Every structure is written in structure tokens, then in C-alpha cells.
């Protein structure tokens, strides 16, 4: 029985008042909110780093692909300069257009399959809500 008195008493042996209980509840809620905000900040930093890296590598890949495509197209055009240069130029343009369309469709697919933003934060908030609901 003395354990129950110690659990419901303050640091100096006085019983906790309603105000103290509310203060402890608010302290707990503020601690939970602080943890969740820190998690949200971490997720934002991770997404920014991921997007920055993707953007940098996309720019490098596009530059190199463009340079390669132009050099190959020029080489093919030079090879057929005396016979069918107009036909070759049209076929090269059509090939580039087809590759651009395929690339655009791939970008759309990647954009649709991205992970949910702030997934971990939302999961933790749902757990908190469930835990608080159990205590009622």
C-alpha cells in the first residue's frame, strides 16, 4: 500500500494535485511533439539530400548522353553524306523523338512510385494516437 502513496506523491512526499498531473501530462505531450518534430526534420533533410543527389547525377547523365547522341548522329550523317543524308537525318530525328518519349514516360513512372513523404513521422504519430487512446 505504501507503494501507491509513493507513486501518487511528489518529490517531497506531498500528494500530487490536479495541477501537477496536468503539468506532467503537458510535459509528456510536449516531449512527444518535440521528438516527432525532430523526426520530421530528419526526414526533410534526407529528402533534400536525396533530391540534390538525384538532380546532380541527372544533369551529368543528360550532358553525357546529349554529347554522345550528337557525336553518333554526326558520325552517321557523315557516313551517309553522299547517298541518303536527308533520309538519315529524318530517321535520326525520329529516333531521338522516340527516345525522348520513352524517357518522359520513365520519369512519370518514377515520380508516381516515390515513397510517401514523412512516412515514418506519420507512423509514429499514429502509434502515439493509439497509445493515448488506450489510456482512456
Number of helices: 4
- Rounded Rg: 31 Å
Largest sheet: none
Rough outline:
rod-shaped
Average pLDDT, rounded to a whole number, is 82
The count of domains is 1
What is the chains' assembly state? single chain
Beta fraction: under 5%
Structural class: mainly alpha
Order of helices and strands: HHHH
In total, the number of strands is: 0
Q: Helical amount among residues, as a percent range?
A: over 70%
What is the rounded distance between the termini? 24 Å
Low-confidence stretches: 1-6
Textual characterization of the structure:
The protein is an all-alpha fold and about 140 residues long. It has one domain (about 1-135). It contains four helices and no strands. α2 (about 20-80) runs antiparallel to α3 and α2 runs antiparallel to α4. It is rod-shaped. It starts with a helix and ends with a helix.
Please render the helix and strand layout as text:
Layout: H1 2-7, H2 18-79, H3 85-112, H4 119-134
Helix pairs in contact: 2-3, 2-4
Amino acid at each position: 500500500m505504501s507503494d501507491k502513496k509513493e507513486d501518487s506523491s511528489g518529490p517531497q512526499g506531498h500528494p500530487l494535485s490536479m495541477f501537477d498531473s496536468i503539468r506532467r501530462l503537458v510535459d509528456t505531450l510536449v516531449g512527444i511533439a518535440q521528438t516527432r518534430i525532430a523526426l520530421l526534420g530528419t526526414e526533410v533533410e534526407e529528402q533534400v539530400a536525396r533530391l540534390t543527389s538525384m538532380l546532380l547525377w541527372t544533369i551529368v547523365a543528360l550532358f553525357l548522353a546529349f554529347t554522345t547522341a550528337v557525336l553518333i548522329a554526326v558520325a552517321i550523317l557523315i557516313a551517309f553524306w553522299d547517298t541518303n543524308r536527308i533520309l538519315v537525318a529524318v530517321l535520326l530525328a525520329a529516333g531521338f523523338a522516340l527516345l525522348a518519349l520513352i524517357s518522359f514516360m520513365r520519369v512519370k513512372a518514377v515520380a508516381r512510385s516515390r515513397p510517401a513523404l514523412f512516412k515514418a513521422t506519420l507512423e509514429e504519430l499514429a502509434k502515439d494516437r493509439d497509445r493515448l487512446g488506450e489510456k482512456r
